[in-house]
């Protein structure tokens, strides 16, 4: 029973992982909101509704953009910690996602990086379904890793 | 309904008519075809499925007038007719097709045997005087008869319908009232007085007749609307046939005639009642194509309901089952045409109403195998028709393998037309015009797997707000829609019984509302299927108050004008103000129309035009970081109340800034101000900008490196530099405001960023590179013409467009200028008639339980008159299960346009070279997939199905297009503009942009010429785009859509230069010639009428540029010769070899 650095890492990542799960859930909800317009069909034609809807979309996209950086940095933080703690297996599990995040972040279509989740692009059904799938996958990944971290934490605490 | 395609379409209709024979077994509807056409057109390919029962022949005259039931053209060539007539026997006979038809016979006999016995009653009337006239007429290509045929063809039971169709033809006659009854009688005459009818059969036919006649009186009148609409069209060349006073009206059984006449009389007198529910559409411009279709007199009478609903209607059935000793097939499934050219009845399918269309149809295959046999016939036909654009001339052989590397003349001599979906005749006739709605695959594959195998893109190309010459407009308090998917009722729904209809998109069974049962046109009750909504695939509803929660917005126009030094120097202000002054009264709008002006340089200037002021007041806001409106209520003023002030301002404006030294441009702040001004109402902002915005929000920096213009590697900066314009556009879109951009810049102006303001607000973009009013007169003229069109064209405000499709298909990507509000709803602040859209689709669930899929676009907009209207287009396509069918139905032009749209997206999101690779791969993949399916072909040669034979050529043209070319110096703005156009142009214009048409015009002849509005328009053959076709002795016209080049060879015939250009010899032709003089010579007249005809076919008036062989502008011309090799790109042949190499790899 020893409180090693590795154990600390796992405890911290457990907490942060909860945050990531929350983010992923929020993403799913947001994309769902973008996808479905709950108003009645006739209401679509109403210009007032059009305005509301547009504001809504913009707001959601704005929030989505805000969440990009925290999510990515939290996840990178894990990896750095696991690297320091020399938890190779855990690191190996997380590395693909880190690379994916890097790719997403730096592979921005336009000149300005602000354009990730920009409203016209996100509303494209193709992009939207991609984002939605991505969010579900992440949720699954984070959930699994949550329990994995929990197990690892207990294991490190108990074993050494 | 409109029939934009002139001849082709009608032809198609015609041919179509034979298709539904089978299920119309013995309706005695002797339709009056124009006999001459029967003879000429249907020589070979109109086959008749039918065991035609013929009257014993009378003589040559009768042959020409042969009448078939239900308007099926009989395969009679005048010579052939003789024999046939001779053979036919008196009673019902399964006519084995006469010998003279050997080409056809094999085919037909095969088809007929399996198919239904429908009988053509060929009637003859000796006294019918037409043939002579008609034959004289024929060279002038009056096809109109086709369309006459079409209504008949589809008529199920109603005798009076043909009469209506006929009437339409005739209603352009000077002596209408007399003409109509006459034609009617004529018809009847044909039916009854054929002297030689064998009596018993005749009797039964007569029975049919009278029943039909009486039964369908009411139905006939449902056509009124279309009649009313039609009259804007004047069938020109065709008039003659029917006006023929010599047509004798002879013995007519009086009872019948009277019953028939009445409805017609109604029609004649009733036009007054027409507007009540249908009005001729306010078509601003009649495109020439449309007007040429005039010649063919598009008759939108579509009355196929019965046919569609084959089994559904008791009364129709009773009519059909009148005594006739022939095989009774009234309940036979519908033919669902697989016989390619003419839809042979060999292919049978279930009626849509029962929805039991069996995909695994035995008839299908037999039908398919028919085509080889049919080629000769069809080819022969097309060759006899010479230069006519026969729409389906390539259709029957769309699967014929073409060896691309060996075929030297791959380009047809006449313009390529849209393939016709392989539907049965009535559906085909009802289907939406390919100009408004086209699918890349006219045969939809059943599963995504099949689609993946074919490696062809699946998508739609839309031109929803096109100017139409005829459009049924429906006013009704309830608009009938499906309760679950909200689909509008359309011709492809099925009526289960009188009270219920089944949605063709989601298959829900809906009730027919009480109101829909009553047909206001006929004042009859219980015929929901006769309503115009169910008769036309393109209709416009005037929406009830449910569709607006606020009063419809007035037309509001705001002009934002750049008045910096650069702009003043270019001198565009004069042109804009002049055009506005000229068109002020023609701006679409009603009494509420409002207008306003903002000018800007480094400050923003507003103009107070409040009524009552003595002169316009200029208000300058210099605080560009926080723009405010100086007087919010008097900047946008009522056009009519303040007209004088507006005129004062417009005449003063060009001179107000003449001495300005301000070089900066604060576009961003000016746009913010414009947005603030417009947000309470919404409307249209027109921005004129002449340089890179350099001050305030949204300022941009030059990103273009001129040295990189011809780089073959990376092209950067295709995306916007800032979010400002996109955000502004979204805000505008939310306030129902569209921003249209006119960029008149001689230097780099970062169109990539500026274009965002129009892209997401559903605006449009015009770009005039190196614009100068005096140095570049061609651009100045273009601006003037574009403005004229821009200011006067139709406009729809606060629009939304939704595209629905049959369950199983899903739409996933949209292309065009709009904002996607929810996954299938496009928000369009403005809609203009020149906007095109493209849509990509995928097949989510396999379409096994259906054999038809439908697509419906509904565009809800506020017209400039403040009416809320919904324009609905419905397209119906067959589903196929085999790969070869998918290839057979490929629409190469639509596919190329869709690929171009996808490539634009790809180049912005990834890179240009990726996009280019993707284009090449699209060809390679589809052709290799085709080759691997056709196992009997040699693997080493490059084979394409005939339907895709132009695919490599078009893709090569696309690779050499400004948007995608590399290696050739291309300014970034030019490139971006080309991309914007690809995204927002409708297919017809886009195709011209990608692959221009080249004609030789120094030797125009009247051979194959067509007649449009009393003018003879020569139809020179298309030349392939290669320098090898250019000869020094000739003069060539290249039609690039927005610009016409006339290239004159060095040793061009002096007589051409003198007679057409008006200069004594080649050397004296000036460098900048933009007009052809009106000379009184035959060749000048021909050239001008040809060019005018080309011009009229498009909304934007193209500029003409005459280029001498050695002039510097020559490169503009030569860059369009896509089949030639350039230093940076393949020639066509090399490209083919490259593809072949890729395939073999």
UniProtKB/TrEMBL annotation, chain A:
Bilayer topology reads:
Multi-pass membrane protein
**Keywords of the record:** Membrane, Transmembrane, Transmembrane helix
Q: Where in the cell is it found?
A: Membrane
**Pfam families per the UniProt record, alphabetical:** Cornichon
Q: Specify the domain of life of the species encoding this protein.
A: Eukaryota
Question: GO CC annotations?
Answer: glutamatergic synapse; membrane
What biological processes does GO assign it?
Answer: neurotransmitter receptor localization to postsynaptic specialization membrane; vesicle-mediated transport
InterPro entries (UniProt xref): Cornichon, Cornichon_conserved
- Main location (coarse class): membrane
Transmembrane feature ranges: 7-29, 72-95, 139-158
Family note: Belongs to the cornichon family.
Name of the molecule in the record: Cornichon family AMPA receptor auxiliary protein 3
Q: Which organism is it from?
A: Chelonoidis abingdonii
Its gene name is CNIH3
């Amino acid at each position: 029973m020893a409180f090693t650095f590795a154990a600390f890492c796992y405890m911290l990542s457990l907490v942060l992982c909860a945050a990531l799960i929350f983010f992923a859930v929020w993403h799913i909800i947001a994309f769902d909101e973008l996808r479905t317009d709950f108003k009645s069909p006739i209401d679509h034609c109403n210009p007032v509704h059009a305005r509301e809807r547009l504001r809504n979309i913009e707001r959601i996209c704005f929030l989505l953009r805000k969440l990009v950086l925290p999510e990515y940095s939290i996840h990178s933080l894990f990896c750095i910690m696991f690297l320091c703690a020399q938890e190779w297996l855990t690191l190996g599990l997380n590395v693909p996602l880190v690379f994916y995040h890097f790719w997403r972040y730096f592979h921005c279509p336009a000149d300005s990086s602000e354009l990730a989740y920009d409203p016209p692009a996100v509303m494209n059904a193709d992009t939207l379904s991609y984002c939605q799938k991505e969010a579900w996958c992440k949720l699954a990944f984070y959930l699994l890793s949550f329990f994995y971290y929990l197990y690892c934490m207990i294991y490190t605490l108990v074993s050494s | 309904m409109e029939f934009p395609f002139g001849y082709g379409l009608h032809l198609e209709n015609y041919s179509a008519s034979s298709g539904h024979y089978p299920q119309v077994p013995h309706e005695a509807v002797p339709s009056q075809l124009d006999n001459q056409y029967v003879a000429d057109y249907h020589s070979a390919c109109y086959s008749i499925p039918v065991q035609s029962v013929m009257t014993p022949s009378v003589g040559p005259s009768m042959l020409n007038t042969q009448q078939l039931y239900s308007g099926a053209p009989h395969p009679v060539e005048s010579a052939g007719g003789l024999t046939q007539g001779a053979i036919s026997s008196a009673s019902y006979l399964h006519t084995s097709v006469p010998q003279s038809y050997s080409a056809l016979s094999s085919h037909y006999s095969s088809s007929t045997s399996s198919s239904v016995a429908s009988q053509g009653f060929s009637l003859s009337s000796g006294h019918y005087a037409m043939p002579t006239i008609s034959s004289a007429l024929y060279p002038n290509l009056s096809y109109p008869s086709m369309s006459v045929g079409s209504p008949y063809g589809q008529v199920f039971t109603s005798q009076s319908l043909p009469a209506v169709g006929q009437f339409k033809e005739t209603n352009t006659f000077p002596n209408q009232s007399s003409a109509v009854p006459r034609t009617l009688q004529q018809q009847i005459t044909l039916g009854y007085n054929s002297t030689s009818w064998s009596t018993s059969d005749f009797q039964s036919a007569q029975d049919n007749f009278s029943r039909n006649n009486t039964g369908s009186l009411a139905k006939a009148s449902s056509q009124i609307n279309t009649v009313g609409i039609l009259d804007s069209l004047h069938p020109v060349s065709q008039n003659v046939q029917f006006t023929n006073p010599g047509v004798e009206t002879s013995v007519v059984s009086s009872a019948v005639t009277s019953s028939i006449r009445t409805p017609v009389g109604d029609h004649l007198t009733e036009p007054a009642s027409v507007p009540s529910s249908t009005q001729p559409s306010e078509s601003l411009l009649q495109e020439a194509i449309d007007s040429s279709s005039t010649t063919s007199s598009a008759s939108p009478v579509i009355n196929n309901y019965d046919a569609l609903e084959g089994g559904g209607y008791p009364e129709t059935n009773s009519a059909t089952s009148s005594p006739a000793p022939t095989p009774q097939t009234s309940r036979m499934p519908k033919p669902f045409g697989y016989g390619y050219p003419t839809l042979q009845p060999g292919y049978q399918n279930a009626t849509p109403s029962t929805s039991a269309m069996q995909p695994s149809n035995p008839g299908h295959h037999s039908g398919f195998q028919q085509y080889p046999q049919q080629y000769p016939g069809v080819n022969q036909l097309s060759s006899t028709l010479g230069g006519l654009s026969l729409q389906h001339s390539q259709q029957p052989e769309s699967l014929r393998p073409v060896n691309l590397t060996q075929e030297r003349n791959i380009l047809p001599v006449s313009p390529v037309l849209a393939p016709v979906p392989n539907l049965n005749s009535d559906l085909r006739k009802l289907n939406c015009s390919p100009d408004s709605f086209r699918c890349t695959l006219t045969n939809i594959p059943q599963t995504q797997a099949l689609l993946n195998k074919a490696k062809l893109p699946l998508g739609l190309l839309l031109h929803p707000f096109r100017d139409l010459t005829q459009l049924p407009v429906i006013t009704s308090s309830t608009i009938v829609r499906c309760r679950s998917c909200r689909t509008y009722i359309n011709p492809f729904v099925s009526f289960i019984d009188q009270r219920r209809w089944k949605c063709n998109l989601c298959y829900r069974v809906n009730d027919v509302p009480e109101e829909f049962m009553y047909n206001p046109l006929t004042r009859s009750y219980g015929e929901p299927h006769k309503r115009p909504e169910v008769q036309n695939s393109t209709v416009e509803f005037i929406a009830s108050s449910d569709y607006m929660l606020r009063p419809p917005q007035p037309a509001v126009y705001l002009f934002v004008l750049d008045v910096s030094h650069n702009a003043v120097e270019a001198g565009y202000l004069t042109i804009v103000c002049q055009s506005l002054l000229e068109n002020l009264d023609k701006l679409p709008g009603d009494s509420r129309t409002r207008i306003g002006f903002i000018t800007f340089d480094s400050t923003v200037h507003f103009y107070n035009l409040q009524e009552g002021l003595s002169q316009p007041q200029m208000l300058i806001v210099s605080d560009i970081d926080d723009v405010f409106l100086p007087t919010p209520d008097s900047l946008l003023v009522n056009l009519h109340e303040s007209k004088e002030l507006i005129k004062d301002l417009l005449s003063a404006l060009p001179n107000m800034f003449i001495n300005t030294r301000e070089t900066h441009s604060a576009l961003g702040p000016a746009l913010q101000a414009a947005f603030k001004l417009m947000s309470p109402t919404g409307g249209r902002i027109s921005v004129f900008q002449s340089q890179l915005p350099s001050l305030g929000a949204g300022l941009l920096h030059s990103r273009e490196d001129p040295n990189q213009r011809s780089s073959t590697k990376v092209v950067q900066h295709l995306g916007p530099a800032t979010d400002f314009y996109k955000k502004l556009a979204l805000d505008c879109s939310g306030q129902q405001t569209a921003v249209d951009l006119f960029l008149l810049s001689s230097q780099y102006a970062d169109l990539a960023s500026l274009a965002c303001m129009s892209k997401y607000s559903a605006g449009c973009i015009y770009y005039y590179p190196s614009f100068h009013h005096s140095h570049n007169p061609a651009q100045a003229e273009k601006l003037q013409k574009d403005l004229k069109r821009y200011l006067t064209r139709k406009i729809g405000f606060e629009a939304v467009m939704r595209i629905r499709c049959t369950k199983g298909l899903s739409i996933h990507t949209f292309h065009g200028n709009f904002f996607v509000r929810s996954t299938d709803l496009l928000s369009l602040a403005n809609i203009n008639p020149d906007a095109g859209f493209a849509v990509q689709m995928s097949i989510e669930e396999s379409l096994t339980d259906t054999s038809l899929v439908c697509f419906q676009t509904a565009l809800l907009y506020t017209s400039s008159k403040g009416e809320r209207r919904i324009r609905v287009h419905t397209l119906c396509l067959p589903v196929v299960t085999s790969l070869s069918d998918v290839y057979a139905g490929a629409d190469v032009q639509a596919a190329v346009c869709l690929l171009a749209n996808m490539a634009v997206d790809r180049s912005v999101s990834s890179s240009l070279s990726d996009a280019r690779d993707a284009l090449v791969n699209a060809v390679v993949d589809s052709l290799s997939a085709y080759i691997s399916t056709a196992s009997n072909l040699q693997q080493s040669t490059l084979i394409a199905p005939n339907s895709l034979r132009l695919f490599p050529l078009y893709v090569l043209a696309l690779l050499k297009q400004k948007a995608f070319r590399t290696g050739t110096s291309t300014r970034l703005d030019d490139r971006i503009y080309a991309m914007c156009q690809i995204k927002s142009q409708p297919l017809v214009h886009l195709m011209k942009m990608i692959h221009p048409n080249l004609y030789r015009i120094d030797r125009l002849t009247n051979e194959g010429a067509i007649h449009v509005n009393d003018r003879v328009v020569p139809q020179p053959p298309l030349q392939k785009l290669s320098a090898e076709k250019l000869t020094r002795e000739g003069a060539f016209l290249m039609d690039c859509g927005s610009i016409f080049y006339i290239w004159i060879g060095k040793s061009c015939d002096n007589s051409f230069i003198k007679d057409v250009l008006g200069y004594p010899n080649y050397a004296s032709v000036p460098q900048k010639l933009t007009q052809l003089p009106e000379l009184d010579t035959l060749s000048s007249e021909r050239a001008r009428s040809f060019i005018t005809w080309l011009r009229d076919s498009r909304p934007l008036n193209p500029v003409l540029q005459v280029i001498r062989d050695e002039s510097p502008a020559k490169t503009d011309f030569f860059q369009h010769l896509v089949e030639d090799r350039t230093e940076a790109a393949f020639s066509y042949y090399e490209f083919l070899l490259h593809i072949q190499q890729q395939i073999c790899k």
